[in-house]
Amino acid sequence: MEHRERRTWCEEISRINRNLNEEGKKQPDNPFDVFR
C-alpha cells in the first residue's frame, strides 16, 4: 500500500474511533457501578 493510501486509511480509522469514543461518553452514569 502506498503511503498516501495508508495515511487515508489511518485518518478514516482515527475518525471512526473518535466518534465511537464520543458516543461512549454520552451514556448516562450507572448508579449501580460502584467500582467506577
Automatic annotation (TrEMBL):
<protein>
    <recommendedName>
        <fullName>DUF6760 domain-containing protein</fullName>
    </recommendedName>
</protein>
<feature type="domain" description="DUF6760">
    <location>
        <begin position="2"/>
        <end position="28"/>
    </location>
</feature>
<dbReference type="Pfam" id="PF20546">
    <property type="entry name" value="DUF6760"/>
</dbReference>
<dbReference type="InterPro" id="IPR046648">
    <property type="entry name" value="DUF6760"/>
</dbReference>
